[in-house]
Every structure is written in structure tokens, then in C-alpha cells.
């Protein structure tokens, strides 16, 4: 945690929405370090339980679109942080954002909240709002709703956020590292003003104690104004890569280039598109008034190269606190897991395997917790890769999200095209599929002891089909289960024995 030595004298009670996301998951420990009390509003509170700060913060269930749960979460709150958006939930996401922001502002006023703090996007000057991308237009509208509400608001507007695990950083990183020669869209010549995630957090924390008469938006950015082409070349220098050859062409629209980004990087096209659309227009700061309330420190805001070097070091040392994929995929299923023996949800297909293991349960669990990412899935790599490519092709997240940490998982982590739904340390890892499927799917892995005291590995794949297509899908892939799931079980037990 990094508050740059700044501690607020007043202890405030802060509500944080979006605590399972990239910024929210990093803001909570910063607020705690600054001496504040923190309450998190989350749709699935259990996803926050494994965070290092979970025991120091209160978590309540609810949704920003539900007035009753927001009202309950606002009780006794001084400062309310709004760090959520409905991007990716469908064509109606702007209306969802609008309704959620109005609900949040209304309930904050009713509860006597002193201040709302919102992190939005930096918008270009001189461009009519109707000409902006839906992503930026919605961000701007949410900020305006808070500024027009009775509760004083601080609206922070940032462009590209550079930090280990951020979508912007990962897009920049993978494009530069994987493509020594790039044919790029024309937006690589657009100027933008990136900011390090540490400075974003510093401004968010400092916003909590702004005077009551401050009710406005602030542009926040680092000291460097760069084109995306310049950022890629600077990244190559900082990372010790050869100079990249960049050839921009005018025919790659934001839609086409988002698919290009989706092919080359772990960031799916659905998320790459708003990022690339935001680069169509120049977005640079037109004021630095935030310094009057959150004073600059020596060397801060961080220069672009320093923010890059810090992010790279975090990645290489496997100290990434949150990632762009920390938040659940919009629209991902949240239905209850079919439980044994009674479940009234209709058809349920299972593939279950049990194998003895010539190793301790601890050794087996280490292998189980290490699945995915660079370690792979212990069976038929080509089949897993093809399934990931197919998922990308239909707009899913694909197989390349990887892991936040190479050895340890926590509830809520993304794991390739799965999400960690449950962990019982040393015993159970349950994953929920976030790939595009005609139904709901889970994969469970157990480290057990049999009746004779020997270690046993148990693996269970479950699929709840949706309609006729779901049934057809299961039966079309079931012939491959012996190879994929059977090979996975055998290879996991062998890996545990070898260890």
C-alpha cells in the first residue's frame, strides 16, 4: 500500500463500490492505510473474502441499480466512491449506467453522505458529446449526474491508466512485446496523457477530505503527453526490447482494430473496443487544479517511463494486486451451483473421475492450485487452445487471461476462461466457466483421503444445458472427455507424485 506518507487527520467512513474490480480492489487498502473505515458494496460479497484487506473492511451485499440495497449500504457513510459501470452488459448499458448513477446520488443525499467520488474518463475538448464513443459518452453523463445532484461530488477524469494488471497496460505490453513489426490503426498518432495507477489512487484517497464547497470535475494525468505510437516505443525501451517498426494504415477502424487487439493480447475485443474508441480523439488534461487539494509530491505524478518500469517490476515479481479481469465478466452466469443430491434446476450432466495419488494431499493441492495460465491444464494442450480460440471468435474472453498469481488463487480470481468460485484450502477448487456456452458449467478439483488413508484426486465437470442447443453441445463434446478430462486427471496425479 502506498499513500506517499500522507495521512488524513479525520477518520471517515467510506463506501466503495466496485471493490472486486481493478481500481476498487486497490483503493480499499489505501483508504484503510489513510486511517479511514471502509464498507464495500458487492453483488457477491464472498468474492472479496480472500483479499488481504478483507478482515479490515466491512462487506455488504447489493447492487447499485437496487435502491434498497444502496440505501442500506449508505447508512452512516461520509464519502461514497462510485467505481462501477455497465460496459459490456449489452446495447442498453448507457441506460443502466444512467439509472444506477441517479439511484446512487439519490440514496447518498437521503443518507446524508458528505461527498461522492467518481472516477470517469477524460473527454476531448471541442467534440460534441454525441460524437464520442458510447463508452466515453456514458462516463461523461454519469459524471454530470453526480455534479448536478445535491451531494457535493469530486469527478476525476483520467485517460490511459498505467499499472500492473490494468487493461491499458496489458494491451500496450502485449502489442509491443509480441509484434516487432506492426501495421497499426491511425489512432496510434492520437495524443493522450497517461497516468500511473499510484497517482490515480492518491487522488482518489485525497478526494475524501476535500472541503464541502468543492463540487467539480478534475482532469488527472501524468507529466507526459504521448501518442500511442510513442508509448509503444517508450515501452520497448523500458523493457529492453529492440526498436519496434510501426506502420499506421487508415483502414483499421476501432471495431476492426479491437478484434486485432483481441487476437494479439489477452484483452478481449469487447473490452479492447472501448479502449481503442477512446483513442480516436486527443485526450489531454486542460488543468491541474487537483493539486490545490491533493498537493503534488516530489517526483509525482510519476513520469510515464517510471510508471512503466514499476508496473513491469510488479509483473515480473508476481506482485500484481488486481488485474483488469478481476471484475466478473458482464453477463456471466450467477446461478447457484447444482448441489448433490437434490437440485430442481432440470438436466445436469456430469463427468466425474477418481484416481489414487502416490503423494501427500499437500503435494496434490499444490498442483491443483497451480493449474492454468503458464502451467496449462495438464491435458491435450491443442484442444484447450482451440476451445479458447473458438471462444474468442464468438466474442468470449478466450484462454489467455492467465492468472493473477502463478502459485496462489483466491475467490473471484479469473483463471483463463474460468472464474474461481470457491476454495477450501487443501481440499477443493471450484471454477465457474465464463466462456460462451449454451448453458452453465463448473469444474471441481478435490484433494481427498480415501477410507484407507491414501491420497485421492477427484475431479468433477458439471454442465447445466440451456435448451436443445445445450443438450446438443454436451453430446457433441462428450466423446472428447476421455481425452481431455481423463488425461487431465491422470497428469495432475502424476505431477503431484513427481513433486
TrEMBL record:
It comes from the Bacteria. Residues 18-122 form the NAD(P)-binding domain. It holds the Pfam family DUF2867. Transmembrane segments: none annotated. PANTHER family: NADH DEHYDROGENASE [UBIQUINONE] 1 ALPHA SUBCOMPLEX SUBUNIT 9, MITOCHONDRIAL, NADH-UBIQUINONE OXIDOREDUCTASE 39 KDA SUBUNIT-RELATED. This is SDR family oxidoreductase. It comes from Streptomyces lancefieldiae. The lineage of its organism: Bacteria, Bacillati, Actinomycetota, Actinomycetes, Kitasatosporales.
